[in-house]
Amino acid sequence: MKISELVAQIRKKKSFLCVGLDVDMDKIPAHLLQTEDPIFEFNKAIIDATHDYVVSYKPNTAFYEAQGIKGWQALAKTIAYLNTNHPEIFTIADAKRGDIGNTSGMYAKAFFEDLAFDSVTVAPYMGKDSVEPFLAYKDKITILLALTSNPGAFDFQTLKTGEDEVYKKVLETSKKWQNAKNLMYVAGATKAEYFKEIRDIVPDSFLLVPGVGAQGGSLSEVCKFGLNKNIGLLINSSRGVIYASDGLDFAEAARKEAHKLQKEMEVILSVN
Ligand SMILES: O=C(O)c1cc(=O)[nH]c(=O)n1[C@@H]1O[C@H](COP(=O)(O)O)[C@@H](O)[C@H]1O
């Protein structure tokens, strides 16, 4: 999907919400466990109930890999369901990959060709040649970790190397790479005070912003400096939306949570 198509969808739905499909077997409603494919049934119900308010879904592959072959099959079924029924929705494989070139090439093939995701999250730690195989896909988006939402972000990402912190080097260096227009960056909602400096370096890029909801990040704080002329933000919430209820009403409860976030976004967009 082209970024211009994502922007058009955001403007139409008045939403820049990304819902994380992080399916935890200990948290999904008990009645689904009796079905043939609980993970897919859960995802399908969540997608059906929330897609009006959502422009992107982000399954984190860890939750699927943890269930072995059945989990991977459920992931494949989920992405196929989205691509068939909601081709306008931007899909993110949250896999945080990155390795030596030929290995990264296989990761890229897995997520872009076999599973047909629009994008994948990639760790920048191994440098340019570990990211290039993802960027080689001209019609796909690579989402590079810059400043993550977790407390451990301060262990390495904010360390100074010369003038700049490591996360700034990631932004500055990667934006010079070939096909860098197909890069987005992860910036955690829990780090809102860094967004002005992030925007100074990458004014035009989209930022994937996890950490709203269960991790306590603030949507309005992120938007103060995070928005750009193309909106430029995808705000992710996973647990806060998909586990709003663990009862028979789980999908309806998720819809309400997604709608609440969408309404907040609509207000923000109306004054920006
Ligand atoms: O790449 C990510 O999506 C990500 C980066 C980051 O800095 N922090 C972060 O929480 N995430 C992911 O975003 C999701 C957040 O989930 P909730 O905290 O339940 O909303 C999880 O799938 C995380 O793995």
Write the layout of secondary structure elements.
Elements: H1 3-13, E1 17-20, H2 38-50, E2 56-58, H3 61-65, H4 68-85, E3 90-97, H5 101-114, E4 119-122, H6 128-135, E5 141-147, H7 153-156, E6 160-161, E7 164-165, H8 166-174, E8 183-187, H9 195-201, E9 207-210, H10 219-226, E10 233-237, H11 239-242, H12 250-270
Parallel strand pairs: 1-2, 1-10, 2-3, 3-4, 4-5, 5-8, 8-9, 9-10
Antiparallel strand pairs: 6-7
Helix pairs in contact: 2-4, 2-12, 5-6, 9-10
Bound molecules: orotidine-5'-monophosphate.
- CATH top level? Alpha Beta
Largest sheet: 8 strands, parallel, barrel
| Percentage of residues in helical conformation | 40-55%
Total helical segments: 12
How much of the sequence lies in strands comes to 15-25%
- What is the CA-based Rg, rounded? 18 Å
CATH homologous group name: Aldolase class I
Ligand kinds = orotidine-5'-monophosphate
Question: How many strands?
Answer: 10
Shape descriptor: globular
Question: Would you tell me the structural class of the helices and strands?
Answer: alpha/beta
Report strand order across the widest sheet.
Answer: 1-2-3-4-5-8-9-10
The stretches of 5 or more residues where confidence is low (pLDDT under 50) are: none
Architecture in CATH? Alpha-Beta Barrel
What is the helix/strand order?
HEHEHHEHEHEHEEHEHEHEHH
CATH topology term: TIM Barrel
Calculate the mean pLDDT score and round it. Answer: 97
User: Span between N and C termini?
Assistant: 25 Å
Number of domains: 1
